[in-house]
Automatic annotation (TrEMBL):
<dbReference type="GO" id="GO:0006310">
    <property type="term" value="P:DNA recombination"/>
</dbReference>
<dbReference type="Pfam" id="PF13342">
    <property type="entry name" value="Toprim_Crpt"/>
</dbReference>
<dbReference type="GO" id="GO:0046872">
    <property type="term" value="F:metal ion binding"/>
</dbReference>
<dbReference type="InterPro" id="IPR003602">
    <property type="entry name" value="Topo_IA_DNA-bd_dom"/>
</dbReference>
<dbReference type="GO" id="GO:0006265">
    <property type="term" value="P:DNA topological change"/>
</dbReference>
<dbReference type="InterPro" id="IPR006171">
    <property type="entry name" value="TOPRIM_dom"/>
</dbReference>
<dbReference type="InterPro" id="IPR000380">
    <property type="entry name" value="Topo_IA"/>
</dbReference>
<dbReference type="InterPro" id="IPR013824">
    <property type="entry name" value="Topo_IA_cen_sub1"/>
</dbReference>
<keyword id="KW-0460">Magnesium</keyword>
<dbReference type="InterPro" id="IPR034144">
    <property type="entry name" value="TOPRIM_TopoIII"/>
</dbReference>
<comment type="similarity">
    <text>Belongs to the type IA topoisomerase family.</text>
</comment>
<dbReference type="GO" id="GO:0043597">
    <property type="term" value="C:cytoplasmic replication fork"/>
</dbReference>
<keyword id="KW-0799">Topoisomerase</keyword>
<dbReference type="InterPro" id="IPR005738">
    <property type="entry name" value="TopoIII"/>
</dbReference>
<dbReference type="InterPro" id="IPR025589">
    <property type="entry name" value="Toprim_C_rpt"/>
</dbReference>
<dbReference type="GO" id="GO:0003917">
    <property type="term" value="F:DNA topoisomerase type I (single strand cut, ATP-independent) activity"/>
</dbReference>
<keyword id="KW-0479">Metal-binding</keyword>
Amino acid sequence: MPVILAEKPSQAQAYAEAFPKGKKGEGYIVIPACSVFPQGATLTWAIGHLVELRAPAEYDPAWKRWNLRQLPMLPDTFEFKTSYKTRKQFQVVRRLLKEADEIIIATDCDREGENIARSIIRQAGASHKPTKRLWINSLEKEEVYKGFMKLQEGKSYERLYDEAQARQVSDWLVGMNASRLYTLLLQKKGIEHVFSVGRVQTPTLRLIYERQKEIENFVSEPFFELTATFKTETGTYTGKAKGHFKTKEEAQQQFIERNIEKKDNGVVTKVKVTKKREKPPKLHSLSTLQSLANKKYKYSPSKTLEVVQSLYDQPLKLITYPRTDTQYITKNEFAYVKKNISPYQHVTGDHFEPASFHPSKRYVDDNKVKEHYAIIPTKKIPTVADVQKLRTDQKNIYFEIVKSVLAMFHFDYEYEETLVTTDVKGLSFHSKGKVETAKGWKQLFSQAKKSQKEKQQQLPSLPQLREGMEAAAFPEVVEDKTKPPKPYTEGQLINMMKTCGRLIGDDEEAKATLKEVEGLGTEATRSGIINTLIRQEYIQVEKNVVRVTKKGEILCRAVEGTLLSKPEMTAKWELFLRKIGEGDAEKDTFIRNTAAFMSKLVETVPKDMEQLEISREMIPDINKGRKDKYATKPIVRCPACKEGVIIQQKTFYGCSHYKKGCTLTFNRRILGKNITPAQIRLLCEKGETRVIKGFKGKRPFDAKLVLRNGKVEFSFS
């Protein structure tokens, strides 16, 4: 009997609904015999990653302690373990996989979905079993059923697993080694934080930091422009002469040379009216939806991802696969969307006669769709009652997706743009106006509240003007000043990461690489990277504006000049990873290259860090923001240095004078037993604890802990 492995319970439930009702067990569902599975099938699920890479100390006990002498940590082979939190479900999945005749991988259709499934299969000892692959973009019953009817050969996707493994292992190498390296070196300079370093998060942070420094170092300079207000028989309008001037005198000289008065006569010399049109916007990828939701509703990228995932998952299943980087659909999707225009209109209340039913290449292109297509509504049409049950954020996002599809069938937005030139004694003033002639697709979308800047940039409606018309002119010199770039909003970070090739200077090869891989991260990971930067206290988001913290600034200064700070490096990695997935490069080569890079970093960074200057005045300010939720009150005087005190940390007890060289530490957990502060006090004051029962060796045993020459040993006397 085949076993179907889904990525999460909600996904499994959606699959089960495509088949006759089956029997539920603990962690699985039995699908009865049917046309797809004549012998029946068993459907089970992961809960995300049931399997994870081992921690450094599980390779070598010496790696438990953070020590520069132990770097780089380069395991000979990388080993995986069952995640502690989900071990119960793993036991269910392992039993079912071992009993299976065939395994159907039905996790998300991307490299991480493949990684989740095959890591579990390998850990369960079922890699020798034949595999098939379900590859669908919708959880609708009909699409699920069709997907299971045309399963792909599992072998065709093994390279995707290699790609994900190369990514996972290399991120472990960078994260574990670089984080310890920079943390320990910065601690030598008095910075008490732990610094997390990553191949994507660190260059992303660096780009935010560069924008912030550009704003801080910006020196505003005044400039002067020539403007005029014109009054005619048909109305009033304004115009501006070309050019900026450094001083007010230089600007006024333009008037003096032409003998232009404060009130003078002008004449309209040119009126050019151009009919223009804007096509409906493209369909949504995850990035475009995240950017729009942040600008319009102030939703963070992670919130938008959570909302679209909830609309995709069981029980709603209102939209197609959300973690897509594509803005195109194929002719198959276009066919069902076209049939459902009227129901979609009924859902949103936007009734209009479609302009065309022809599949435009702007939206429909089979060649532009690889694994996934754009985010669009499914064939499932919610009732009015269904829509009312949605949360406000779900309704907002769902309507944006439906309206983007309706816009594809709507008329263009049309307007007339008028360019006017008005002459005052040989000085030309230029005016631009706009008159909307057909609302078109824009009638679908309620406009977000415009900012003051957007209102100022909005083109006015000019009065009816004709060439040769006289105008009373009121010219003046207007002072303005250059403005710094704006700080990023949280939504703009998504687009910045995707298009960061534009920000890296003159390296055309690097720009091309970043464009090819679509910048830093992937559609599925970018919001998570932003969340990591917030969680690590590298950035703060206040009123949707992103600011780098003192801790973030220190890390940016520390990595400056290294490959870790450069987005082009991680882009080249992503390009290599893609080649692994396509079968044009090898996983082991990539991992070896990453290990060599870490060895080089460990060799060079300590020397470079000697040049990093941190003023003593800054250190208390930086450390002030440190959140150490594990540190407690002093437990006992340190028996080693006699000066510091032993305090509790996350996974150990250690001396408070570690920066002054005291390295005495005690594990908080020894052979399955939690060691209490009271036992540590006895160990330090008396040299031994009372008998502790239940240590778990090959057999359970009882023993005292004794402190001999700075090391903890067992005593069985």
